[in-house]
Amino acid sequence: MKLMNFGSLNLDRKYGVGNFVAPGETKSADSYFENLGGKGLNQSIACARAGSAVWHVGAVGKDGTALVNCLKEEGVDTSHIAVKNTASGHAVIQVDHAGQNCIIIVSGANGEVGKEQMIEACEALEEGDIALFQNEISNVAYGVTKAKRSGAKVAFNPSPFNEKISEVDLHDVDYLIVNEGEGREIVGGKLSSPEEILVAIRKSYPWIKTVLTLGEKGCYYIDGEEKYFQDAFSVKAVDTTGAGDTFCGYFLSALLKGCEPERALREAAAAAALAVGKEGAACSIPTRKTVEDFLEKKE
Ligand code: RIB
Question: What whole-number distance in Å separates Cα of residue 216 and Cα of residue 234?
């Protein structure tokens, strides 16, 4: 059983700042790093480091060799990554002293993931596989339905949340992985508390198993009447970039390995906490051994 991740590949340009730049302000960065990232790449690496077989479907430009090689080094199958005649996607990321981030993405080659490419990848899907989508590549709505028709379970992380999400047929989604803002938007944008959001998601989409992540406030899993809460592990935040992606990859890997959702939440929360304690996106994702050692000390 494998994860087939239809996801973005970005070159991340990270600027360390005391506080985020305000309108009209020009400021010098305290630090600058170029990292490999993209929600897709981060989630593939997290799932592979957690011990699962991962295939990545996506697109880079001719400047994207490092992105593909990085996935290969993690054991990820890259045969469904296309090389396009355009620049790879990139992200401009401000990280403040509290470790919070704000991100601008430029889709580049991520915006050229084609339907044909998705059809070919879906031919390799088998029962028990999970197909994962975020919202940083083209043709997500098409891919979700195609993957579902090919017999896989579909996991959807509607991030970043924008008008394209409404094109996705949520009847084809088995697992929804959202943060508080995305969860709120998916049920109309008005509700305030996480509990209200969960109730509304269950009411509107009763077939979907939902994970709602709340950062340092923990996370929920809900499937019909079954509901679990996992506290966040307390760590000093250095850089939250990619922590949600780490959570997502570890959570899905645990499911692929047959773990109960409660255990999957715990492993994912531990991996995300470890990622928050390190700088960068992909480079902050912990190995399986690091997560196991961390949890052993907590249990
Ligand atoms: O979730 C973090 C990621 O969002 C970054 O790596 C950046 O590339 C953007 O896709």
Answer: 7
Catalytic annotation, pick one of 96, 129, 245, 293:
245
**CB distance 56 to 5 below 8 Å:** yes
Tokens of 246: 């780490």
Distances in whole angstroms, Cα of residue 70 to Cα of each of 56, 78, 204, 231, 274: 12, 10, 39, 32, 20
* SS3 state at 156: strand
Alpha helix ranges (H) inside 219-260 = 243-256
Smallest Cα–Cα separation from 50: which of 160, 152, 130?
Answer: 130
CA of 299 to the centre of ligand 1 (A): 31
Centre of ligand 1 to C-alpha 191, Å, is: 26
pLDDT digits (tens, 9 = 90+) for 150-198: 999 999 999 999 999 999 999 999 999 999 999 999 999 887 799 999 9
Report the topology of domain 2-19+31-289.
Answer: UDP-N-acetylmuramoyl-L-alanine:D-glutamate ligase (3.40.1190)
| Token pair recorded at residue 124 | 């390799």
Q: What is the mean pLDDT of residues 242-255?
A: 98
Task: Compute the mean pLDDT over every residue in the chain, rounded to the nearest whole number.
Answer: 96
Q: Which atom of ligand 1 is nearest to the CA of 243?
A: 1
Domain ranges in the chain are: 2-19+31-289
Strands of 209-213's sheet in order across: 77-83, 53-60, 2-6, 130-133, 153-156, 175-179, 209-213, 219-223, 226-230
